Amino acid sequence: MVDQEQEYLTFMLQGEEYGVDILCVQEIRVWSSVTQLPNKPDYIKGVINLRGVIIPILDLRLRFGQPPLDYNEQTVTIILRQHSHQKTSVVGIVVDAVSEVYKFSNSTIRNAPDFGNNIDRCFLKGLAAVDDKLIILLDSETLLNEDDLYCIEHQKPESLEEVTLLLDSNDCTDKQIIKV
Hints:
This protein is mainly beta. Helices cover about 10% and strands about 40% of the residues. The protein has 4 helices and 11 strands; from the N terminus they run E-E-E-E-E-H-E-E-E-E-E-E-H-H-H. Strands 8-1-2-11-10-9 form a 6-stranded mixed β-sheet. A hairpin with a 2-residue loop joins strand 1 and strand 2. It starts with a strand and ends in an 11-residue tail after the last helix.
């Protein structure tokens, strides 16, 4: 069996280095303003018109539950394109800064440790060591999954009756966890 190599574009988020499959990277852009949309998750900053294609832009810090950061001259938007079964998804992710391009073989990518149900590993493809640091490799297919991206989270319900109403009216019920 041949140990294939794959290139990853890495970027910084709150001092940690993350990587995405470079074949999913369409382009890298300096942060520019977006058109705001109503009734969207907080991590979706809005949309841009990129050569006639409307692209949603999401803040990856907020998507990962990290504190927001004021955008500056190093803030960039990475436009990602993911080909899935019947369609292509194009999404921009806002990151602190772009870092490097690395080549990893399948044998050098390690699985993330199992933390049980306490930590969501759905975005993780694995971890790769470079010198004495670990790079968190993201699974672009789950990162760009439209069903998860555009599911609007609701406020914590006040009563069991509100939970029932949310379940009856929410299209994302199989993805939503309601804590009472």
